[in-house]
Specification:
By secondary structure, the chain is of the alpha+beta class. The protein folds into 2 domains: about 5-120 and about 250-260, Roll (Diaminopimelate Epimerase, Chain A, domain 1), CATH 3.10.310.10; about 125-245, Diaminopimelate Epimerase, Chain A, domain 1 (Roll), CATH 3.10.310. The chain has helices spanning about 30-40, 75-90, 155-160, 200-215, and strands at about 5-10, 15-20, 50-55, 60-65, 95-100, 105-110, 115-120, 125-130, 130-135, 140-145, 175-180, 185-190, 195, 220-225, 230-240, 240-250, 255-260.
Length: about 260
């Protein structure tokens, strides 16, 4: 097995192993056990997920995302922002890019303050209940509004929803949302990681839209979001029962880089 160069990135505490596969094919969709081992925080590098950067005709690159359990995942918003920063580090792009992910095309652009802005898909077909929503922002998300996040056992309650009769087979991410003075605070249990993560990009996007449905406004919206891993912002435009021009904005930073040797055997 060849030595594999890797890069570790984090976006608001959501961390990922990045591997450049433009020239060499190190890992693939059948390498579930190896990917899970690399993501393990005790026996591997440690990460919420692993992302392959690959070439794709008509795009600057393709993002292939795997959850920490080694299974191929749906869209990851913070991962999308991090892979854009990775692509710029590699010299593949400059101030903006267009790439392909599991849920289709995305754009990313870089702000002068270092934040990365990522375009998300339109959101529609939202289920609403008493203080809860279920919607898909590239990944499925259950959103529940709570009085105080510090009183919520995110791991226990997240598991109860994720493994409930409705969601047991396909799974869902579970977000607990507290309304703040000018935005929201969010804690997320992620499927595939099967634990709480410090932030979740598609989760805060879903939570910001759910908050709008609780407190509707007029025209384009910008919702500040506080997670345990840092600040994010979600922007969108309501159009009837759907939401367009959705952008996830926040930091994306290189943590360290290294070489994988021996772990793949």
């Amino acid at each position: 097995m060849p030595t594999i160069p890797f890069f570790k990135y984090q976006g608001a505490g959501n961390d990922f192993i990045m591997i450049d596969q433009r020239e060499n094919h190190y890992l693939g969709r059948t390498d579930k056990e190896a990917i899970a081992r690399l993501c393990d925080r005790r026996f591997g590098i440690g990460a919420d997920g692993l992302i392959l950067l690959e070439l794709h005709p008509g795009y600057d690159f393709e993002m292939v995302y795997f959850n920490a359990d080694g299974g191929e995942g749906s869209m990851c918003g913070n991962g999308g922002r991090c892979i854009a920063a990775f692509a710029r580090q590699l010299g593949l792009i400059e101030e903006q890019c267009r790439f392909l992910a599991a849920d289709g095309p995305h754009q990313a652009r870089f702000r002068p303050d270092g934040w990365v802005e990522l375009s998300m898909g339109d959101v529609k077909d939202i289920e609403q209940g008493d203080g809860i929503c279920f919607l898909n922002t590239g990944s499925p998300h259950y959103v529940e509004f709570v009085g105080a996040l510090e009183h919520i056992d995110v791991l226990q309650r997240g598991r109860e929803v994720r493994y409930s009769e409705r969601f047991r087979r396909e799974g869902t991410n579970v977000n607990f949302v507290e309304l703040t003075e000018n935005g929201i605070a969010v804690a997320t249990y992620e499927r595939g990681v099967e634990a709480e993560t410090l932030s979740c990009g598609t989760g805060v996007t879903a939570s910001a839209i759910a908050r709008y449905l609780q407190q509707p406004g007029h025209g384009p919206q910008a919702v500040p979001v506080q997670t345990k891993g840092g600040r994010l912002e979600v922007r969108f435009t309501p159009r009837g029962g759907s939401f367009t021009d959705v952008w996830l904005c926040g930091p994306a930073q290189l943590v360290f880089e290294g070489m994988i040797e021996g772990m793949m055997e």
